């Protein structure tokens, strides 16, 4: 074990190395105290800003053809299971679509529901060529529906100036496309106002 003098010498030299800017008198003054606090200046860590992952731009999505359905996939039979899933989703959403359910409550839920997989029919249109088109909704955009018909034809039907009918378990709902110009994600948060009469 070290003697007291050796210990003092060690502490003195240690303090001298640790704090070279201090004078001997200041070190001796520190040694006369019972507690010795060594000064420590930690380096300030610079916080790195987290970069948010940027999605694709509209131009990049078009170039990558993210929303295009390949011709060999444009078959009605392929999407029938999707329609069955959608029907189950709507039944769960509307608590079974019971006969005593209030129509305006079901209508309100359908307005906010996801329509991918629903079978719709164009019942009214300012363009007669659209009337009668029936099929499964594959994609919904702000202004158009992409519908696959039983003839395996992919139709792009605008929402504007068109009325669509949707039937499930005997309940028929009408969608006025001109009041439906929203993306599916925006629709779920929108409050729709009930109106007595709506024109095309």
Please, could you describe this protein's structure?
The protein has 200 residues and is of the alpha+beta class. It has a domain at 73-189: Roll (SH3 type barrels), CATH 2.30.30. The chain has 6 helices and 6 strands, in the order H-H-H-H-H-E-E-E-E-E-E-H. The protein has a 6-stranded antiparallel sheet. The chain is elongated. The mean pLDDT is 82. One of its GO terms (molecular function) is ribonuclease P RNA binding. Belongs to the eukaryotic/archaeal RNase P protein component 1 family. Keywords: Nucleus, Phosphoprotein, tRNA processing.
Short descriptors:
SH3 type barrels, 200 residues, 6 helices
List the helices and strands and how they pair.
Blueprint: H1 4-18, H2 24-31, H3 58-64, H4 80-93, H5 103-112, E1 119-125, E2 134-140, E3 144-149, E4 154-158, E5 162-168, E6 171-176, H6 184-187
Main location: nucleus
InterPro entries: RNase_P/MRP_Rpp29-subunit, RNase_P/MRP_Rpp29_sf, Rof/RNase_P-like, Rpp29/RNP1
Protein name: Ribonuclease P protein subunit p29
